[in-house]
Amino acid sequence: MIEKGRISYLELALIMYATVVATAILYIPYVTSQHAKRDLWLSPIWGSLSGFLIVMIIVKLSKLYPGKTLIEYGELILGRTLGKIISFIYLFFLLHDTAIAFREYGEFIESAFLHKTPIIFVTGSIALSCAIAVHGGIETIGRCATIFLPIVLALYILIYVFLIPDLNVKNIFPIMQDGIMPSIKGSIAPHAWLSQFSLMSFLIPLLTNQQKVMKWGMFSVIASVLTMVFINLGNLFLFGGIISNLYFPVFEAARFISVGSFFEHIESIVIAFWVLGGFVQLSSFFYMLILGTSQWLTLPSYKQFVLPIGFLIIIFSVWSTPSFEEMIRGMGTTMPFYFLTVQLLIPVLLLGVAVIRRKRSKSFLP
Amino acid sequence: MLLLCLTSIFLTGCWDRTEVNDLALILAAGIDKGENKNIELSAQIYIPGGSQGGQQSGMSNGSSSGQSFVRSAEGETIADAMARLQEELTREVFWGQNEVLIIGEKLAKAGISDEIDFWMRHSEPRIRADVFVSKGRSKTVLGAKPELERDAAKQLRKIVKTHIGVKVTVKDLSQMLSGESAPAVLPWVEKLPPSLMDKKKEIPIINGAAIFKEGKMVGRLDDKETRGILWPRNEIKSGMITISIDDENGYISLNLLRSHTELIPSIKNGQWSMHIKTNADLEVVQNTTILNLFNPKVIKKSEQKVADEIEQRERLAFSEVQEKLNSDIFDFANEFQRKYPQIWKQKKDEWNEIFPQVAVSFETKVKIKRNGLATGKHQRGVEQ
Fold first, then answer.
1. Exposure of B67 by Cβ count < 10 A (0-12 exposed, 13-18 middle, 19+ buried)?
2. Beta bridge partners of B280
3. CA-to-CA distance for A340 and B319, rounded, in angstroms?
4. CA distance B211 to B328
5. pLDDT by residue, tens only, chain A of 366 residues
6. Nearest-angstrom CA–CA distance, A286 and A277
7. Residue B345 sits at the chain A interface (C-beta within 8 Å)
8. Contact yes or no for A306/A290 (Cβ under 8 A)
9. Can you tell me whether residue A21 is helix, strand or coil?
10. In angstroms, what CA-CA distances link B216 with B105, B206, B210, B220?
11. Which of B237, B261, B338 to mutate to test binding with chain A, by most A CBs within 10 Å of its CB?
12. Whole-number Cα distances in Å, B194 to B125, B148, B251
């Protein structure tokens, strides 16, 4: 085992939560509202199906191959050559996914605050600080998650608590005006985000004990979905019909806060706290990528990999998408299918083959 | 040594810093139809030095001279005009503190939908800024020097906060304009005639509202009619209602404590109608009649009278807005859509013809909660 550190159930749930939610709350309201309009709050609920399904498959696989990650049991299930190829596809996807996460972070900071700073400085500096956390190992990231996420979570809720006087609950009606389809169409982006629960496969072997992993994995999915629903509802109550015009409704909501005409203009503080969540998210992506790569190459340690791969991520974050608009467009069209293909199909394939092999070996050896 | 070298790397993070004294803080902005070009942007810019005098003397002595100034520039769009404005200023224009946006009458009549884009899209202006329409050019409003407040921007913001008239932010305006037939209502700014104290001073006040349709200003309501639209919009927060009862001499004045209005849409046999249900609580603050307000009959009668008064105000507003201007500023469209989504989908395109035909009915429940602390005169009821 390359990683010596161990994490608890809570840390696993929190890391997965951060991995999914941090950028989801920024981009999902816009992308889902393009199709779902007023029903955008329903979309994450449909999206949760992907999350539950993937958690089930991943937990099943890790029960069959305890102490192994997806990269390792891929080889055991499919044989050395085919396993390496499949693992490589998954790893390459993970690199792309991580790069997109960094780009999402960077694009948001750019649009909101640092218009003139080259994006590479924004992503580069967060990558550097993530690299320190990753070098510290999974325990460092787990601690960061337990310390930072309660603050971030409180922040998500507080934004809308401060906005209560401006919220108009009536904006939710009529529910499902055009039937169920718009909200399902809108749910492809939440599907993409929630499919990232396949990354749990890297964390399960690091748990101190693993009996209740299914429960905690599901708990994490539910928490992520509830957060998305909450954020979508909050934005809908605040902005009503114009929600589909705002690229970052959460940010606009934070800018809108004004309590007693002195507690206002607080978006800088809000975003400073949000960056904490972003940091946990990016560190865990980064960490899983590095752990996976060194397992694929069967190296004794991953530490010397941190900076080179960090550099690769930054380069990929520039390559992955030509512009902000293309990225947003991709989120509503191609990206979800790409994400689901890799993150759902590969685990399903592995599980299928593994189960068949088990049955055969049992029937051959009485 | 190495540490020193490392810190110098991080110091480069300050490469595009802007200190407060490099910024020109815009307190209020006005947009007008330009003379040569499309848009004339006027900005009220804060002069930081001005506030020091006030701090030293412990409080502002009321002289608002020299705390801000107004500059304007023309351009094809707001952003273009802003760039031109920047050329005349030594400091960088900063919109983050801008909380008032005034639209000139001419531009309002030509249409404002295109200009709102700037306020939504640009990352500096706040979508919580209050929006107004001014009689004449917005520039003259910005230049006014009110007595009690620092400048015209502060003056307008404070007035609108009292909820005497409508209060509309950029967000609200954008929401209204995105509705069916893009109706909108904005507070109408006029100048109070020069006050008796000082003939040179002119103070902007809110006097009624401007009504928009399809993003263009189509008319305006006077102060009384504006009060009437506040009830159905559920925006009324305070108010004084004075009634007289039948053949009695004198009046009873009541202060509004709280009110809540519900819009109940219904479609029966193709007839669209809207039931406006208002609940209001009031307290008596003056009674110049000789009626005893402890008499339940009197209370009942005055409650009925107040309800009639409120409904009369609402009717007045509806006759102007619904019949003459045909602008759905009460958000009827959304109410119908919420209750009858399927019918709405078919009839959406005909909304402009349907809206004037919507039958409006009122139901007002008034409760007089308190009679005040004491009475100033003898009462008939006691002697009987």
1. buried
2. B259, B366
3. 57
4. 9
5. 677 888 899 999 999 999 988 888 888 888 888 888 888 888 899 989 889 999 999 998 888 888 888 888 888 888 888 889 989 999 999 999 999 999 989 988 888 888 788 888 889 989 999 999 998 889 999 999 999 999 999 988 888 898 888 888 888 877 777 778 888 888 888 888 898 899 988 888 888 888 888 899 999 999 999 999 999 999 999 888 788 888 888 888 888 888 877 777 788 888 888 899 999 999 999 999 999 999 888 888 888 888 889 999 999 988 888 888 888 888 888 888 888 888 888 888 888 888 888 888 776 654
6. 14
7. yes
8. yes
9. helix
10. 10, 20, 10, 12
11. B338
12. 32, 14, 32
Contacts of B96 in chain A (CB under 8 A): 265
- Interface mutation target, options A116, A177, A238, A266, chain B, most CBs of B under 10 Å: A177
Q: Which helix (H) or strand (E) holds B131?
A: strand B130-134
Give the gap in angstroms from C-alpha B293 to the nearest C-alpha of chain A: 36
CA B196, B200, B205, B210 dihedral sign is positive
Q: What is the spatial distance between Cα B28 and Cα A224, in angstroms, rounded to a whole number?
A: 41
**Spatial distance between the Cα atoms of B284 and B307, rounded to a whole number of angstroms:** 14
Give φ, ψ of B341 to 5 degrees: -55, -35
CA distance B300 to B297: 5
Q: Are the C-beta atoms of B160 and B187 separated by less than 8 Å? A: yes
Q: Do B188 and B102 touch, CB atoms closer than 8 A? A: no
* Cβ contact, residue pair A241, B127, below 8 Å: no
Ordered by start, the domain boundaries in chain B are 19-53+66-221, 224-384
CA distance B232 to B361: 11
Among left, alpha and beta (phi > 0; psi -120 to 50; other), residue B364 is beta
What architecture is the B224-384 domain classified under in CATH?
A: 2-Layer Sandwich (3.30)
Q: Which residues of A touch B345 (CB under 8 A)?
A: 177-178
Which residues lie across from B25 on neighbouring strands? B94
Residue with the two structure tokens 């996914």: A97
Which of B126, B128, B175 has its CB closest to that of A241? B175
Is B179 an interface residue toward A (CB < 8 Å)?
yes
Distance CA B46, CA B151 (A): 10
A24 membership: H or E segment, kind and range: helix A9-36
The residues with which B205 forms a beta bridge, in sequence order, are: B190
CB B207 within 8 A of CB B188: yes
Q: Chain B residue closest to A252 (CA)? A: B127
What residue spans of A113-212 are helical by DSSP H?
A: 119-136, 138-162, 181-186, 188-194, 200-203
Distance CA A309, CA B354 (A): 64
Whether the CB of A115 is below 8 Å from some CB of chain B: the reply is: yes
Q: Look at B175 and A256 and tell me if their CB atoms are within 8 Å.
A: no
How much is the pTM? 0.83
Burial bucket for residue A66 (CB in 10 Å: 0-12, 13-18, 19+): exposed
- CA-based nearest residue in chain A for residue B128: A256
Among residues B244, B227, B247, B260, which one has the least CA distance to residue B302?
A: B244
Inform me whether the C-beta atom of residue A245 falls under 8 Å from chain B C-beta atoms. Answer: yes
Query: Which of the 8 DSSP states describes residue B197?
Result: S
**A242 to chain B: closest CA residue:** B175
